[in-house]
Write a structure and sequence with these properties.
The protein has 159 residues and is of the alpha+beta class. The protein has one helix and nine strands. It has one domain. The strands form two sheets. It has a five-stranded antiparallel sheet with strand order 1-2-3-4-5, covered by helices on one side. Strand 8 and strand 9 form a beta hairpin. The termini are far apart.
Length: 159
């Protein structure tokens, strides 16, 4: 009877260690996945915004740029809070790129040539972007957040 009780305690302790390890492993996998997705998104946005032309429409969740050297082609970024997805597409191209998913918060901001915040599109020389993403671990949404922020300078923007 004593050996069954001791064995049960040992098995319970091992099960607790296993569950904690599984949760930690899942959390680390989420961090790695979110970090890789965020880095890829930031790299692609930086490359495309730097190569874009003029910023023609702005809101904290929507950007529209002219395509450099073309008049009727646009590069568009849009974040939809209900789906938590950041998408990118070019007019004239039927392909929509899903850049980020699982985004809890995302906002764009504009900066002038001295990197002061501005609300005037004609003065904008930089685009600030920041987002927070999270995932669930074993069915529970926990603190698996990944925050990214950057300031991207529009190289082809006429001053």
């Amino acid at each position: 009877m004593v050996s069954v009780a001791v064995g049960s305690l040992i098995l319970a302790a091992m099960a607790m260690v296993f569950m904690t390890s599984a949760r930690s492993f899942a959390a680390m996998a989420n961090y790695v996945e979110m970090d890789a997705g965020s880095r890829n998104t930031l790299d692609q946005m930086t490359r495309d915004v730097r190569q874009a032309g003029d910023l023609v429409q702005f809101s904290p969740t929507y950007l529209k740029f002219t395509t450099f050297g073309q008049t009727n082609s646009f590069l568009i970024y849009s974040w939809v809070a209900t789906s938590g997805c950041l998408t990118e597409w070019e007019t004239g191209n039927s392909i929509t790129n899903l850049l980020l998913s699982g985004c809890d918060q995302l906002s764009f901001s504009m900066y002038d040539s001295s990197f002061s915040a501005t609300t005037n599109i004609s003065q904008a020389k930089g685009i600030g972007v920041n987002w927070t993403c999270s995932r669930t671990i074993l069915g529970n949404k926990t603190t698996t957040e990944d925050m990214q922020q950057a300031l991207i300078v529009m190289r082809n923007k006429p001053l």
